[in-house]
Specification:
Serine Threonine Protein Phosphatase 5, Tetratricopeptide repeat, P-loop_NTPase, mainly alpha, elongated, 5 strands, TPR-like_helical_dom_sf, about 675 residues, protein-tyrosine sulfotransferase activity
């Protein structure tokens, strides 16, 4: 702790002994192990030299460590008067005053200390603690912020941060651990260790360290910002919201705080709240293209297509190369591009944007040229967009196939025959399959029923499955299947109850049933049946060529990493069909299949079948689903706000000449549709 030193004044008597530096050092060393002996040595020095401030300080420090706080405080007050403004005296005085409940005196000492040494974070941290004890939350917060500012130039912390950013995580952690041994209440070092764990992929440990940093310094805004992002990664939304509210109350107001809070509200489904934040930010800074884009996303989700178009075009008007804004316009599906728009996108690409801007522009221009009927040029831009996006992601078709095989091997009829029980809640309705299969239409139809609440694509089941799979991957079990076979009835019930509890945050009404529309949950159909045996499972299916091509030309905000290569999405669809065919055989009647083309051809009959499977009475509102004003966050948000139409059924045929990789990957699935191909069992055995 660099708080300076006290000069030892020599005695004015010519015969006085030289200042006893060695004796002072020995007394100081005794403070922690034997404060009583340190006091005795200091008193001897004081008596011998009449006026020896370093010995006076040691004596006061010893008294405080011996539990004689008032005696220590009395001596420190006198010492401060004799040598005002000396950092070590002020530090000790502040601690003694704080321990004796004299907060005002502690604050006065610490304010003098931080004026003298503003670059030393520990003084600011202690000042924040004292202000907090006095109920001065705003002043405490500002002191914490000053501590963090001081830490940013601390050479030791800078060295550790540079090592961390260079990927030398072990070396950085060793530096920080050594520092915390000397300075246990260093919030900046504590947060950095949290970041090291995050970089290693250990989110739980990262959060524990960042929370510890916030316990030390509740006004550490950067740590709270980091914690909110970690909570969002782990889908702990209520906690993220609470911290976001706190962050927005910071005395150091920042638009970034409000943007982060808006992101949390979007995840919670409070689109109106997020939109209000974006509109307020734009009132202050109307030239922020990213905020306009975010506002466009909110308006799209709420069904305000005109407002969304306006917002996206405002973003593009500010930054012409903003690829996501162009793609967001294209992704409205019902918005049409002009020749001027196509020229503007070509010009934007010609300026040489990189990364997301570039592939978003190619996806958007592909859609604009498709609308214009120039399918050859459209396909070239879709191809470029997918190639650029595919280069950024990791995906294994073999991994998907092996998971489908393991699912079939594990979830058999005999497996379920010996495993009754689980969480018996009837609430969830899972809609699964591939994206762009008509699942949003099914969701909109069901959520128009008075008994059913629509939420969105919930990640909770995938998180539970991922956690279980990681135990097998870490060697706790020989395979995921072995782990599932080991689950007791109590385990299965607990996991189902965990899902119900985790998803409660997404439910905004008192309707008894709710929808989870995560399409990838086809990979978890067996687990769903195991831990939630009364849940409904709806498999939304669309013609494989139409579905896969539609997914390939779509850029998804997250996930769906299998969609950026025609052969890979075809292989994915084939594995999905085979696995679901096996699951149908193992659990007859457990899954209700909605064939998109049948829904389009005879909507009333298909809706009646769907509602009968769910177990609710028929309601006319389900046939007028486009009148449902609920927020819809998927790529089909605008299409489900109008009656069913046939336009998209054959759209893929315009590109048929270029789709051989997809056709070959699908194999016999296409000809057999809507039934599974006869070789589905052999496919799972391969």
């Amino acid at each position: 702790m660099a708080l300076g030193t006290i000069a030892a004044r020599p005695s004015p008597r010519p015969s006085a002994q030289a200042v006893p530096g060695a004796a002072l050092a020995e007394a100081a060393r005794l403070l922690e192990s034997d404060p009583a002996m340190a006091l005795a040595r200091a008193e001897t020095l004081i008596k011998a030299h009449r006026s020896l401030p370093p010995a006076e300080l040691i004596a006061a420090q010893a008294l405080r460590r011996m539990g004689k706080g008032q005696s220590a405080l009395t001596r420190l007050i006198a010492l401060d008067r004799a040598q005002p403004g000396v950092p070590p005296i002020l530090w000790e005085l502040a601690q003694a005053a704080g321990e004796m409940g004299d907060g005002r005196r502690a604050v006065a000492a610490l304010e003098a200390l931080t004026r003298a040494q503003p670059q030393v974070a520990s003084g600011w941290y202690l000042l924040a603690r004292e202000w907090r004890r006095l109920g001065e939350a705003d002043k405490a917060w500002r002191a914490d912020l000053s501590a963090i500012h001081a830490s940013s130039s601390d050479p030791e912390l800078v060295k550790a941060a540079l090592a961390m950013n260079a990927g030398e995580l072990d070396a950085a952690e060793a530096m920080l651990t050594a520092r915390l041994t000397r300075i246990p209440e260093d919030a900046s070092a504590t947060r950095l260790i949290g970041e090291i764990h995050w970089r290693r992929g250990d989110l739980a440990e990262a959060m524990a360290w960042v929370e510890k940093a916030l316990d030390m310094a509740p006004g550490f805004d950067l740590a709270r910002d980091f914690l909110i992002r970690l909570l969002l990664q782990t889908n702990r939304l209520p906690e993220a919201q609470a911290h976001a509210e706190t962050l927005c109350a910071s005395p150091m107001q920042s638009p970034a705080h409000r943007l982060l809070r808006a992101s949390v509200l979007v995840r919670l489904g409070d689109q109106e709240g997020a939109g209000g934040i974006y509109e307020a930010l734009l009132a202050d800074a109307p030239d922020n293209a990213h905020v306009w884009q975010n506002l466009g996303h909110v308006r799209k989700t709420l069904g305000d297509q005109g407002g969304a178009v306006e917002a996206y075009r405002r973003a593009i008007g500010i930054t012409a190369t903003m690829g996501e804004a162009w793609w967001s316009l294209a992704n409205l599906k019902t918005a049409k591009f002009t020749a001027q728009d196509r020229a503007a996108m070509q010009a934007a690409i010609a300026t040489g944007p990189t990364g997301e801007d570039l592939f978003h522009l190619h996806f958007a221009l592909g859609k604009a040229l498709e609308d214009a009927g120039d399918y050859a040029a459209s396909f070239k831009h879709y191809t470029t967009a997918n190639r650029l996006r595919r280069a950024e992601i990791t995906y294994s078709t073999q991994g998907t196939h092996e998971a489908a095989v393991e699912h079939a091997v594990t979830f058999t009829a005999p497996f379920y025959a010996t495993r009754e029980g689980g969480c018996m809640a009837p609430d969830p309705i899972f809609i699964l399959g591939l994206p762009r299969s008509g699942s949003t239409l099914v969701e909109q139809i069901l959520s128009s029923h008075s008994m059913i609440e629509g939420t969105h694509e919930l990640p909770e089941m995938m998180m539970i499955a991922g956690r279980l799979k990681s135990r097998a991957e870490q060697g706790e079990f020989a395979s995921y299947g072995d782990l599932l076979r080991s689950l007791s009835p109590a385990d299965r019930t607990r996991l189902g109850e965990e899902y119900i509890e985790l998803t409660r945050v997404h439910r905004q009404t008192d309707r008894p049933l709710f929808i989870d529309k995560m399409p990838n949950n086809w990979q978890n159909a067996g687990l769903i049946r195991l831990i939630l045996p009364r849940a409904k499972i709806i498999d939304a299916r669309r013609h494989p060529m139409a579905c896969c091509f539609s997914g390939w030309k779509q850029h998804f905000a997250r996930g769906q990493v299998f969609t950026y290569d025609l052969a890979e999405i075809g292989a994915y669809y084939r594995d999905y069909v085979a696995q679901m065919a096996h699951f149908d055989e193992a659990t007859p009647g457990a899954v209700h299949r909605v064939i998109y083309e049948r829904m389009v051809a005879d909507t009333q009959a298909e809706v009646a079948r769907l509602l009968a499977y769910v177990g609710v009475d028929f309601e006319e509102a389900c046939l007028s689903f486009w009148e449902n004003k609920r927020a819809v966050r998927t790529a089909s948000s605008e299409q489900v706000r109008r009656p069913i139409y046939r336009d998209g059924l054959e759209q893929w045929t315009h590109y048929a000449d270029w789709l051989d990789p997809l056709r070959q990957a699908l194999g016999p699935v296409t000809e057999a549709y809507p039934d599974p191909p006869q070789d589905w069992a052999a496919h799972l055995a391969s």
